[in-house]
């Protein structure tokens, strides 16, 4: 969970103004990023696909944004207060923020966006299922009333990845569950949508009416200052082509480079390596709605028991400093780190796996594993696991498609039994996609339903951590997903770029030397 000079509007002064003007004076005409493939529609409310989020972050903004410590900071919001024991949240909005159509953002836009997100957004129900009302209680004030407190409400609305991006009222109110059309890609971000040429590029250009916050840029929070006239996001599925393109100067930035090239590229003066600060982790989602794995927890545990995760990580990511065979969903050093259930993370016991499969009445029926080569690591992990499962007598049939097709097929439960993806670091468990019952995989057993409600409605940090321990234990018992391990991915960029963000490929506050 991937990123002439304009006249600044009143209120932006001091260091932010000076930095912006310097960046504008040195502006490059065009930045070209090589992405892993063609994105789905850029209606970022409805998708958690990283390739859409990388582009969407430049166009759309949220009420809060995560800083470098993954703490939510005000973005379109100015401040907030909680009332009635946390059941009422009042958010004061920044004034003078313009949409790309020139209209000022008001509370009506936010209320309409929040309503749509709650009904149809990829993560919306995690907050809005408990909403009794959301309304504009002033031109720049929104009031959200909940039936119960939500301990993670601010983190849940602090990222565009399946999150509460703010659209104009008429667009949000009329879109329903259909992806918004390209003509309606209207946000408040530092870049505005220009055009989408399928299989060629998505282009955005600097929005001269943009009003950044006053605070210095930090992570995804703070001022977002645009130095480039335009950015083109170019789908380049082949990793070798992405690499050679940056080396030759055809691209300025390329994402998701394979681990086997890490050491050589680290010594290559024609590129600079951008290793991420926070790990991603591969996930193999089980189909909890339909098919051979539906409610068959014993067969799922058989699959899990057969695997040796470090082998897959080594093949997928190469050098040891790019991966860690860690069973905790959250890495060490974070408040959510847990050892509960983790003894089952990487047992690699084919004999026991065969016994569990027999007890689960498994008779060799092919288990359909949906994977894409756009993310080479996904394919590498799937290939290793398929061989390991064969040693345990479990028959896996890999279905290899492009990423756009996988994103479509994973929403069709009759098409697959397991699908492969990865998850970015999340600041709160409620942002994990597999805790969302509407996310493909559709994990919604009575046990997780009860624990999810407990995690949502509790505001005390220690109590929430205790609940998360129970959830992680349940993950290893019911196996809705299998974590592969922590991986520190890396991108490459032209040596001419400076100010790159280690939290992901975003191109505000970036300029050329």
Automatic annotation (TrEMBL):
Keyword Oxidoreductase found: no
One Gene Ontology MF term: peptide transmembrane transporter activity
GO biological process, one term: peptide transport
Keyword Nucleotidyltransferase: no
Signal peptide positions on this chain: 1-27
Record-linked PANTHER family: D,D-DIPEPTIDE-BINDING PERIPLASMIC PROTEIN DDPA-RELATED, PERIPLASMIC BINDING COMPONENT OF ABC TRANSPORTER
Descriptive protein name: ABC transporter substrate-binding protein
């Amino acid at each position: 969970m991937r990123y002439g000079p304009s006249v600044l509007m009143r209120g932006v002064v001091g260091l932010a103004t000076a930095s912006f003007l310097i960046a504008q004076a040195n502006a490059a005409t065009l930045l070209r990023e090589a992405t892993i493939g063609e994105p789905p529609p850029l209606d970022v409310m409805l998708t958690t696909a990283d390739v859409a989020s990388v582009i969407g972050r430049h166009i759309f903004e949220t009420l809060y944004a995560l800083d470098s410590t993954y703490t939510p900071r005000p973005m379109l919001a100015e401040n907030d207060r909680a009332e009635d024991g946390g059941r009422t949240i009042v958010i004061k909005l920044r004034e003078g923020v313009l949409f790309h159509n020139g209209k000022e953002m008001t509370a009506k836009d936010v209320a309409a966006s929040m309503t749509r997100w709650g009904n149809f957004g990829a993560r919306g129900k995690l907050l809005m299922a408990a909403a009794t009302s959301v309304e504009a209680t002033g031109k720049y004030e929104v009031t959200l009333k909940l039936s119960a407190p939500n301990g993670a409400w601010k983190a849940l609305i602090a990222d565009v990845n399946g999150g509460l991006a703010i659209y104009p009222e008429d667009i949000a109110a009329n879109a329903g569950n259909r992806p918004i059309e390209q003509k309606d890609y209207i946000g408040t971000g530092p870049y505005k949508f220009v055009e989408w040429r399928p299989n060629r590029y998505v282009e955005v250009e600097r929005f001269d009416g943009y009003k950044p916050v006053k605070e210095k840029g930090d992570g995804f929070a703070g001022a977002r200052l645009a130095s480039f006239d335009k950015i083109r996001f170019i789908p380049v599925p082949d990793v070798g082509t992405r690499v050679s393109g940056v080396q030759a100067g055809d691209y300025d930035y390329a994402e998701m480079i394979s681990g086997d090239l890490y050491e050589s590229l680290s010594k290559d003066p024609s590129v600079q390596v951008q290793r991420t600060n926070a790990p991603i982790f591969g996930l193999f989602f089980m189909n909890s709605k339909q098919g051979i794995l539906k409610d068959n927890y014993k067969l799922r545990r058989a699959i899990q028991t057969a695997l040796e995760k470090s082998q897959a990580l080594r093949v997928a990511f190469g050098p040891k400093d790019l991966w860690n065979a860690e069973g905790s969903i959250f890495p060490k050093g974070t408040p959510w780190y847990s050892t509960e259930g983790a003894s089952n993370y990487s047992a690699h016991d084919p004999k026991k796996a065969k016994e569990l499969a027999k007890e689960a009445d498994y008779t060799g029926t092919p288990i359909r594993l949906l994977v894409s080569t756009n993310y080479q690591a996904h394919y590498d992990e799937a290939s290793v696991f398929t061989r390991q499962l064969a040693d345990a007598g479990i028959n896996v049939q890999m279905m290899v498609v492009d990423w756009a097709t996988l994103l479509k097929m994973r929403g069709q439960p009759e098409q697959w039994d397991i699908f492969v993806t990865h998850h970015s670091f999340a600041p709160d468990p409620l942002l994990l996609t597999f805790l969302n019952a509407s996310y493909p995989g559709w994990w919604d057993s009575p046990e997780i339903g009860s624990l999810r409600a407990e995690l949502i409605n509790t505001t005390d940090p220690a109590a929430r951590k205790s609940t998360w321990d129970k959830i992680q234990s349940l993950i290893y018992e019911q196996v809705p997903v299998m974590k592969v391990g922590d991986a520190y991915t890396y991108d490459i960029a032209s040596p001419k770029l400076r100010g790159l963000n280690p939290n992901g490929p975003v191109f505000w506050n970036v300029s050329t030397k």
